[in-house]
Amino acid sequence: MSELRDLLTSLARAVREALDTRRTTPDRRSVHGESPGGDAQFDIDEIAEQVVREHLRERVGPPLAVYTEDAGLWTTGDDPEYVLVVDPIDGTRPASAGLEMATVSIAAARLGDGDPTLGDVIAAHVLELKTGAGLYADDDTPGIEATGHPYPVPALSPTTELARMFWSIEFNGHPMDLMTRAYRHLVDRSANTGGVFVFNSASYSITRVITGQLDAYVDIGNRVLRDRPETEGAFRAAGRGSVLHLFPYDIAASVYLARRAGVTITDAYGDPLDAMRLLDLSPLNQRSCVAASTPQLHKSLLENIRWDLPAPPEVGAPQVSGGRDSESPGRTPKAPEAASGSEEPLS
Q1: Could you tell me which residues come within 8 angstroms of residue 308 by beta carbon, excluding any fewer than 6 positions away?
Q2: pLDDT of 108-137, one tens digit each?
Q3: pLDDT of 59 higher than 80
Q4: Residue, of 35 and 149, whose pLDDT is higher
Q5: Where would I find the beta strands (DSSP E) of 2-150?
């Protein structure tokens, strides 16, 4: 898979190099629209998307299908064998602020019947925008190829205690009241003898578990919504009208890399993430995620997060169907929508 490796790594480098020239411009925080999934589009998102289009269309080689956060599904030619699932900037807000918590995230899968899932990923690359450090792996090569790190990676921590964990959590598009009810006791328990972080980048957070900088990453929003469909109004209020949980391009590459590194990573029910459809942005296909450096810590997180949460009383929400064994977890998935938005109800 050397050609695939060269393709993924060169694309990520091209995005990083283009953004390097924009680091000091004052307009990098301007919001000019929203992605098909409903997230805000910043100025640098547009730059990164353009680089992806130009780099792949100018490339000489077999046709590709490409799925990006802002452009959805497109191809470079007829009958592509592979699809690249690309988040040109995972961590737009940190990148806009000149902080390090942002990556280029690229996963490759065989397109097959046109409905590939996360379990079909065969290669993945995550490149840090600030440092240039990267992680790459594919099905043909054992282990992980790590570049630019000051020590050998993977370097998973042995942490098993909740009080000692360094972990990151997610709040974008997540009602603060519900999230704090779910794990404020864990924040209190770990903030002093461990560390609690909000990075606004799933791929950066998950790969920090691989590098040993974090012990765990937690995004429980999608499980809360599935368990308590009456919270949909609160989630849409926090997401400016959209449900903003984990999309395929957020985690496809980092989940593949995490598994290769030995990270325990599942959805917030403890189920595998393989059924997540790579080309579907609908709320029914979005996911939660719990990643930990040890199985013991992962188990403790699932057991100690508080799941029985009431809907915020001030938010009126439609009564919709959901739950672990409904259509939403991927057990009986819907037909794919190449650039589906997230305005449909969870029914």
Answers
A1: none
A2: 999 999 999 999 999 999 999 999 999 999
A3: yes
A4: 149
A5: 31-34, 40-42, 64-68, 72-75, 82-90, 103-110, 121-128, 134-138, 141-147
Which of the 8 DSSP states describes residue 157? Answer: -
Given CA atoms 25, 30, 33, 38 in this order, what sign does their dihedral have?
positive
Amino acid at 63: P
pLDDT bucket at 45, cuts 50 / 70 / 90: confident
| 8 A C-beta contact, residue 249 and residue 37 | no
Phi, then psi, of 98 in degrees rounded to 5: 75, 20
* Radius of gyration over every alpha carbon of the chain, rounded to an integer in angstroms: 19
- What average pLDDT does the segment 189-203 reach? 97
Buried b (16+ CB within 10 A) or exposed e, 285-316: bbbbbbbbbbeebbebbbeebeeebebbeebe
- The partner residues of 134 in beta bridges, in order of sequence, read 127, 147
How far lies 139's CA from each of 133, 201, 223, in Å?
21, 25, 30
Query: Judging by beta carbons within 10 Å of its beta carbon (0-12, 13-18, 19+), is residue 327 exposed, middle or buried?
Result: middle
H-run or E-run covering 195: strand 195-197
Q: Among 7-11, 57-61, 273-277, where is mean pLDDT lowest?
A: 57-61
The 10s digit of each residue's pLDDT in 268-277 is: 999 999 999 9
Considering the entire predicted model, what is its pTM?
0.87
In one-letter notation, the amino acid at residue 209 is V
User: For residue 310, is pLDDT > 50?
Assistant: yes
Dihedral of CA atoms 150, 151, 154, 155 in degrees, nearest 10, equals: -120
Q: How far apart are CA 295 and CA 178, in angstroms?
A: 26
Residue at 210: amino acid letter: I
